[in-house]
Amino acid sequence: VCNKVKININAVPIKFQIDSGADVNIIDEDTFVTLKGKVTLKKSNAKLFAYNSSSPLSLVGKFTAAIATKKRYDVADFYVIKGSRSSGCLLGSTSAVNLGILHIVNQLKSKVGTTSKATEVSAGAVHAKSKQSNPATPLKGMLGKLVASYNDIFQGIGKLKGVKVTLHIDETVKPVAQKHRRVPFHLRDKVEAELSRLEEAGIIETVDSATDWISPIVIAPKKDSNEIRMCVDMVEPNRAIKRTRHVIPTVEELRHRNPESSRTQADL
């Protein structure tokens, strides 16, 4: 996906190229000059690599800023790399999705052959925003029967019950109480309603005691003017969480472990 879009970073318009394969947002050094006084640049030890390159990019630093289009806004990290404007600015997949520029479609559809009757499942197609859209294919055949048999599993919000998640905290990181971000008056009733809905669904819970960590919420509008998307700026708390690493098995290993298992096609 290679399209260009103009977004505002702390109210400064900057043109980006959308890169659905990028995990981070990148700004070249020359473009960053236009943001001086608007953002705070910090040092970063991250190592970023261009596609099919073994040499890391030369980083100047990293900053966090509010980003917005005409319809949505979000908070994101940006890495500043050495180079002129010819190096270009890249908008990663996460920010592109949060701003509604890039859409990830999680869709199940079944194709039943007339002779082999093989069922094919595709999920997670990634595509750029387009004026044309194809309606989801109704579930049929084996897949439809499976969904119908376990209908309760495919309803509502899925929850993992009976398991306590353990977060490994780096005690050397000092807790941060971030400043509250004011919610616009016309959105406050919707925010209160959304908080009540999330609490009733068991997704969040009220904390009445004192806490060392405070993370502000950011409200992003949806296409439907009656709905909002509530985001939490977890940049500071994430710095205190130690990353757990697991070896992901290869396709060959999975086939060796389950030689007679059914196969799924993923369209990415």
Order of helices and strands: EEEHEEEHEEEEHHEEHH
Structural class: alpha+beta
The biggest beta sheet, please?
6 strands, mixed
CATH topology of the largest domain: Cathepsin D, subunit A, domain 1
Cα-atom radius of gyration: 22 Å
What spatial order of strands do you see in the largest sheet? 3-5-4-1-2-6
Tell me how many strands there are.
12
Unreliable residue runs: 110-137
Principal-axes geometry comes out as: globular
Total count of domains? 2
Q: Distance between the terminal alpha carbons, to the nearest Å? A: 12 Å
Q: Percent of residues in helical segments?
A: 10-25%
The CATH superfamily of the largest domain is: Acid Proteases
Strand composition percent: 15-25%
Describe it.
This protein is an alpha+beta fold and 268 residues long. The protein has two domains: 4-105, Acid Proteases (Cathepsin D, subunit A, domain 1); 159-259, HIV Type 1 Reverse Transcriptase, subunit A, domain 1 (HIV Type 1 Reverse Transcriptase, Chain A, domain 1), CATH 3.10.10.10. It has six helices and twelve strands. The chain has helices spanning 29-32, 93-98, 141-149, 185-200, 235-238, 251-257; strands at residues 4-9, 12-18, 25-28, 59-68, 73-81, 90-91, 102-105, 110-112, 119-121, 125-128, 217-221, 228-232. It has a six-stranded mixed beta sheet. Strands 7-10 form a two-stranded antiparallel ribbon. A hairpin with a 6-residue loop joins strand 11 and strand 12. The longest helix has 16 residues, at 185-200.
